[in-house]
Amino acid sequence: MSKFTINEQIIKWIRKNCDSDKDIEEFLLNLIYFEAERTGQWQWKDNYKRMIKNHSNEWGNKNEN
Amino acid sequence: MRIDNIRLLNYRQFRDVEISFTSQKKHDLHLIIGKNGSGKTNFLNALNWCLYGDEPHLSIQSKLLPLLNLNAISSAEEGADINVEVEVRFVKEQVYICFVRKAIFKIFKSEDFPVHQSTEFEATISAEDMNSKILNEEEAKIQLERFIPSGIRDYFFFDGERLDNYFKEAKGQNIRDAIITISQIELLESKIEPRLDDILKELRRAAGRMNPKLDNTTQLLEEAKDRYKNLKKEIQGCHKEIAISKKGMENCDRNLKGVPDIERIEQELHQLRADKKHTKEFIKEYIGKKANILFDSSICVQLAPSFQYSLQVVKEKRINKEIPPPASPVLLESSLKNNQCTICARELDSNAKNHVEEMLQEIKLSSEIANQLINIEYPLKNCLDRLKHNLKELHELTRSIDSKEKELDKIEERMDQIEKILKQCNVENVRKWFEQRKGYEEEHGKKQRQLGVLEERQKKLQEKIAELENEFNEEMKKEVKNKELSKQINFCKKSLEIVTKTKEVIMHETKKKIESKTKDLFFELIWKKETFADIEISDDFDINLIHFMGYSCLGSISAAERELLALSFTLALHDVSGFESPIIIDTPVARVSDENRENLGKVFSNVSKDKQTILLFTPSEYSDDISKEIERIRSNKYVFNLSAAENEVVLKEEKYV
What we know:
The complex is a heterodimer of chains A (65) and B (657). Chain A has 65 residues and is an all-alpha fold. Chain A has one domain. Chain A is built from three helices and no strands. In chain A, helix 1 runs antiparallel to helix 2 and helix 2 packs antiparallel against helix 3. The longest helix of chain A is centred in the last third of the chain and has 21 residues. Chain B is an alpha/beta fold and 657 residues long. Chain B has three domains: 210 residues, 3-Layer(aba) Sandwich (Rossmann fold); 142 residues, no CATH class; 122 residues. Chain B has 15 helices and 14 strands. In chain B, the strands form three sheets. A six-stranded antiparallel beta sheet of chain B has the order 2-1-4-5-6-7. In chain B, strand 1 and strand 2 form a beta hairpin. The longest helix of chain B is centred in the middle third of the chain and has 75 residues.
C-alpha cells in the first residue's frame, strides 16, 4: 500500500489530536505508513522499539527544556 | 468504481456469455430481464462466486446440479480438464481491476459429477499508461475487501426476495467491522493500538525490574488493564446481545402485527369451556328441580278448580251460618226423650216438641255436611297454598334457566369466534412467535441489567487504573537513573492515548455522517414524507426509523418502505465510507405492491445518477408501472432466454428505441 492510500481522516485527526506535538505526530504517521506498507511483517516489535527510542529521545529533550 | 464487463464461462447455465455495462446516459442504469429459472439469480451467484468463492443465493434445483455447465460436461472427452471461469472487470478513471476465479474439473464418464481439481483466484490491475499488475490470491482478496468487503456484500448485491430480512438481523457489527476495514481504522485498532500497548507493557516491566515498588505497581496495572480489556469485551458482547434481542422483538412484532394473542385467547377459551360446563350443569340441575315440582304439583293443578269450588261452598255456608251448627243434637235428643228442655228444665208442649224435632232433623243433616266441610277446608287451603308456592318457585326456576341459557348462547358464540380466529391463523407459529418474543424480552431485560453492573465495574476499574498509573509515574520521577526509559514510557503512553482517541473520533464521525446521509436520502426519496420523523443509527451501527408519533416503527413499515430505507442506508454507507461499488438488485419489486412500484422506479432513476445500478426483473415484474420510469433512462438491457433444451442461457441485448 503506498502513502497516498492512507485515509485522510486518520491523518487529519492524528494531527489534530497531537495538538502540535510534532514528535508524536511524526512518530504516529510514520507508524501508520509503516504498518500500511508492511502488512503481515513479523519483526514489528524491534521496529516499534527503535522508532519509540528515536522519537522519544528528542521529545524528551524538548520536554525537559 | 463500476462493473464494466462480466464474462461467464461454463458456469452453470452460462456456457459462454459476456455482458458489458456501458453507461451511455447520465443514468448508469442497466437491466436484465428473464423468466423464473432463466439464470438471473445465478448471475448474482456468479458474481459472488467470482469475488468471494460462494453462491449465497443458490436455489434447491441448482444445488443438485454441478457448477460446471451441463453441455460442457456432455461434450467433453473422457479425462479432459474443463474450466469454470467467471471474470468481473471493474473500472475507475481508466484503471481496470479484473477479478477472475477459475475452477478446474476433470471429466470421468464413470462419475456422476465432474471431479474438482483446483480453484484459482487472482486480479489484474491495468491502465492504458501502465503495465498490467497481477495480484495473487491474497493480494486480490485485500484489494476486493477495500471496495466490497465480504461482510457487508448484502448491501451491494441485494436479493429482493430476501430484502425483507435486511434489517431483521442485527448486522450492526458487520457494518462496524466493514467501516473499520474501509476507513483503515483497522490499522489503528488491530495493529498500532495493541502493539503500542504491548511495547508499553514491556517498557514498564523493564522499569519494574529496577525497582521493586515499580514492579509491584506494574503488575497491578497490568492485571487491572487485563481485567479492563475483558470487561470491555463483555460489555461489547452485552451490547450485541441487547441489539440481537431488540431485533428479535422487532421481528416477532412484525410477524405478530394484527395477529391475536394466542396465549390469552387460549386461556379465554379454556375458561369459556369451564363456564360452559358449569352453566350446563346448572341448567340440568334446575330443569330437574322444575320437573320434581311439576310432578309434585300435577294432581293439585288438575284438582285446583274443584278445591277452589269446595272452599267457596264452605265460605258461603259460613256466611249463612250453616256451619258450625247452632245447637248440639245430643242436647236436643235428650230434651225430646225427657220431654223437658235440657237447658232451662221447662216441660215441652206439643209446639215446642215439634220445633225441637224439626231443629233436630235440620241439624242432623247440616252437621254431617258441616263436619265434612270443616274437615276438608284446611287441607284444601293448604294444598292450594302449596300449589301457589310451587307455581312461584317454578316461575323463578324458569327465569333462572332462561338467563343461564342466554349465558350459554353467549359462551358458545364467543367460542365459535375464537375457533374461527384460531382456524384463520397458524396457531403453532403464532404461539412460537409469542414465546420467542417473551424470550427476547426477558433476555433484553437481563442483558440491560447486566450491562448496568458491568459499566459500573468498568468505571471503578478506570479509576483504579488511573490511580495506579499516577502511582507508577510518581515512582518513575524518582528514578533518575532510568530517565531514558521513563521518557519512552511516557512517549508510548501518550501516543497510545492519541491513537485511541483518533479511532473513537473517526468512528463517531463516520456514524454521524452515515446517520445524516441516510436521513437525507430517505426523506428525499420517500413518498410518505409526513409519516416518519427521524432515522437513528446506534453505536452498534444498527438502524432505527422513528415515526412522527415518536415510536420506533422499523418493524411495521411496508416492504417498499423497507427497501427504500435499505437503499438509503446502503448509499449513505457507500458515500461516507468510500464504498464506490455498484448496486445489483435481483427481483427488486418482488414484495412491492403495484402502487409503490412506480415510486421505486423513480427512486432507481434517482439512485442511478450517481451510482451504477443493475436491476434483474422477471417480465411480469417489469410492468408498465416501473418500466415507464426506467425504460427512458436505462443504458443496457439484456434478456435472458433459455435454449431449446432449457439448459443454457441465450443472451439478447435490446437496444433502446
